Amino acid sequence: MSTSLDGLQFPLDSGSGKPSTSETGKSIIAEALSLVDHQTSQEALSEKNWRKQYPRYFKALVSQGIATTSNPITIAKQGLHKAQHSFEFYRDGQKYLLKDVMQLPGISKLHTVEVKGQSDQAPEWYIPYRGQKLQGDALLAQIQTWQDAGIIESSHAEALRSVHAHPEWFDLSDQTMVLFGAASEAGPLTWLSRWKANIIAIDLPDSRVWDKIVSTVLKGNATLYAPSQEKISDSADPDELKQKLGANLLTQIPEIAHWLADNPHQLNLAAIAYLDGEKHVRVSMAMDSIMHYVSEQKPDSSLMYMCTPTDVYAVPAEVIDASAQKFTQRSTFEKALSKGISTLSGQHFFKSGQQQLIPSDNGESYGIADCLVVEQGPNYALAKRIQQWRATLARHQGQKVSINIAPSTTTHSVTKNPLLKAAFNGAELFDVEAFEPATTNAIMAALWIHDLRNPASVANPETPLKHPLQLMMEGANHGGLWRVSYLARTALPFAAIYGFAADKLPIKQVMSKLKF
Fold first, then answer.
1. Is 483 helix (H, G, I), strand (E, B) or coil?
2. Class for domain 112-315+376-417+436-489, per CATH?
3. Distance CA 505, CA 470 (A)
4. What is the CB neighbour count within 10 angstroms for residue 48?
5. Which residue among 30, 281, 336, 351 is least packed, with the fewest CB closer than 10 Å?
6. Residue 47's closest CA among 63, 31, 62, 30?
7. Distance between the two ends of the chain, CA-based, in angstroms?
8. For residues 256 and 170, is the Cβ–Cβ distance under 8 A?
9. What is the DSSP secondary-structure string of 413-444?
10. How far apart are CA 196 and CA 217, in angstroms?
11. For residue 75, how far is the Cα from the chain centroid?
12. Count of CB atoms situated within 10 Å of the CB of 369
């Protein structure tokens, strides 16, 4: 078979000979739904406008997941099984199914290079926030402010208070942290480098990437373990290291998996790599394959994921009640304004986000926070859903899993989209807060440590859950999106218009007095 394809790929369409991300995405979601909602599963398969209609099917995954405590496990198993049997891996002109990639012939061995940080400073933690360095009472006050404003859930606030009360948790000299996509702008590399962690960094063989990773570690007190295609002296000059370190998650799946499985230490595996478009699905599948394989070889491994707030989630009834209360408490002027804008926009703006609670067989009822943003696309939603499925299934099977919703963050990958950038600028109009990357990094790194150190955390499989989806409900920092009065994606365009105009026209002082 002659092909120029290399590494992990979407399956090729038999007719066109080109990959079809929509057909693959539909088939995976349909399979995930097949045993819990056969009709919607079939409708997903025949959907003609997947790019615009996919939110309906992702919402069905959640509503069906709520219905019983067994459904989320069934959905995760079906979805992951279909994905593993759908994606293909190419090497040396041969095609393999992703599920068979760990048994490929001629898997080469990666070498390990060790780099020690040069600082002897004791671990510390604070939150950089709007030019301040929040610690002590100021930090606790801000946590309370976020909680009172509905920016973070109470379980998230409690986790931050716990790590604040236990500074000893930040000494990670006894922990080995594996970062897939170590140089990620929203990742915890900088903080781990200050907390004496043993860091296994996996990222592309790119000198700019490794210049960032190596220089960050050298300034801290941690120890870096990095992959290399060739044996390199640990005493090599940093300029030489950045030219030779790295491994490609899309083309070296079996090499990375075997390298990690051979590590003698207990591993904490963090799936934080991000790529644009359809590559995000592929890199999520690559991380999933590696993490699943390593977990089978090393059952004491833990998993870590960061969810996006712009997704659809099961939420406690209290969240739905708070959103409904915010809706009913609007002023007469605000009601008239939103209704008028909705009418003029052909119902594109300000659709009601209120909904009925869904009863579960555990005796509880839950709501749905549908914060999917259509503009982010079905590939982004699928990539994040794959991570939720693995987290849900692994936790069910007795593995420690840290998965928390991170706030909307003004990273480059987000703000290069003009619509999303403008929407973030206007988010305050809806009591939604977008965080700077440095703030998110500090918060989410601390949440990971909380989940590893606190035995009462829901990450611990010995902590009982009333429902498997509670794993994503707990510890959420959604920036206020869960409690917006409207379907989030129908408020986003107005937030974007406001964000575009706010810096150019004198409307901010007036509009900021309105709360939607």
1. helix
2. alpha beta
3. 44
4. 7
5. 336
6. 30
7. 58
8. no
9. HHHTSHHHHHHHHHGGGGT--PBPHHHHHHHH
10. 10
11. 19
12. 28
The CA-atom distances, in angstroms, between 42 and each of 45, 57, 83 are 5, 11, 17
Q: What is the rounded distance in angstroms from the CA atom of residue 318 to the CA atom of residue 179?
A: 35
Identity of residue 454: N
The contacts of residue 100 (CB under 8 Å, 6+ apart) are: 89
Across-strand partners of 401? 303
Q: How far apart are CA 309 and CA 372, in angstroms?
A: 8
| Buried b or exposed e, range 268-279, using 16+ CB within 10 angstroms | bbbbbbbbeebb
Ranges of H-type helices in 46-117: 50-67, 71-84
Tokens of 190: 């900088």
Structural domain boundaries in the chain: 112-315+376-417+436-489
Residues in contact with 436: Cβ distance below 8 Å, sequence separation at least 6, in sequence order: 128, 129, 130, 409, 410
Quick check: helix, strand or coil at residue 183?
coil
A 10 A CB-CB count for 450 gives: 25
pTM: 0.92
Q: Edge to edge, what strands does the sheet with 312-316 contain? A: 312-316, 365-370, 358-359
Are the C-beta atoms of 432 and 408 separated by less than 8 Å?
yes
Determine the angle formed by the axes of helices 278-297 and 71-84, rounding to 10 degrees. 110
Q: What is the CB neighbour count within 10 angstroms for residue 105?
A: 8
Q: 286, 253 in Cβ contact below 8 A?
A: yes
The total of other beta-carbon atoms located within 10 Å of residue 430's CB is 24
| Of 356, 411, 500, nearest in space to 66 by CA | 356
**Torsions phi, psi of 339, nearest 5?**
-65, -40
The tokens 């009709």 sit on which residue? 39
